[in-house]
Specification:
Structural class: mainly alpha
Shape: globular
Strand content: under 5%
Number of helices: 9
Distance between the termini: 46 Å
Helix content: over 70%
Radius of gyration: 16 Å
Number of strands: 0
């Protein structure tokens, strides 16, 4: 049943994104971006498993992933020292404004191309900057994210067990783990807090 495969892969994405959202040693904007992706994945896992069929909520949070979370992650790479990346208040203001715009255009306006194009553009911009910086691990992460998105949009189906949405979920899950910045503080300092 393809429904169960989507529930499982969305649950995997939720686990990875939620884990990253709770990493206190990485900048707040990364954590908020990952947290928003985790929320979309959690709603997806609930929807696809039949536990709680929140069709509209999953769709809205998927829109927020492309129109707010991924652009915020792009800003993390473009301007790592900015207030939007390092200050909770500025990060939330950006996320809120991007979310309102995304929901207005893609949600109410039914222009789903908006969040898909904005999400893809954000990932491509991040990839380009990472290639310039030569960060191999993070380049691999973005490659997985883009590959999963491309297979999903192309409606590719390799096997009877995986549907296009599974490639999106798994590509994003592996991708964000590789893309997430390494913590800058030693483990001892983290535990001492």
């Amino acid at each position: 049943d393809p429904m169960s495969s989507l529930a499982i892969t969305d649950a995997i994405l939720f686990g990875c994104a939620a884990y990253l959202a709770f990493q206190r040693q990485i900048p707040i904007a990364y954590r908020l971006g990952f947290g928003l992706l985790a929320l979309a994945a959690l709603l997806g896992a609930m929807k696809f498993s039949g536990i709680y069929p929140l069709e509209t909520w999953h769709r809205l949070f998927t829109i927020l992933g492309g129109s707010a979370a991924l652009p915020l992650l792009a800003i993390c790479v473009i301007w790592p020292q900015s207030a939007v990346v390092n200050d909770r208040q500025f990060a939330l203001i950006f996320l809120g404004a991007a979310a309102i715009l995304g929901l207005a255009i893609a949600g109410l306006g039914k222009l789903r191309l908006y969040d898909q194009v904005l999400g893809a553009f954000s990932m491509l911009w991040i990839l380009w900057l990472l290639i310039k910086q030569g960060e191999k691990r993070r380049i691999m992460g973005l490659s997985f994210m883009l590959l999963g998105s491309a297979l999903f949009l192309a409606k590719v189906q390799f096997s009877p067990w995986l549907v296009p949405g599974d490639f999106l979920h798994l590509g994003m899950a592996i991708g964000i783990l590789l893309f997430a910045p390494k913590s800058h503080r030693p483990l001892i300092a983290q535990h001492a807090e």
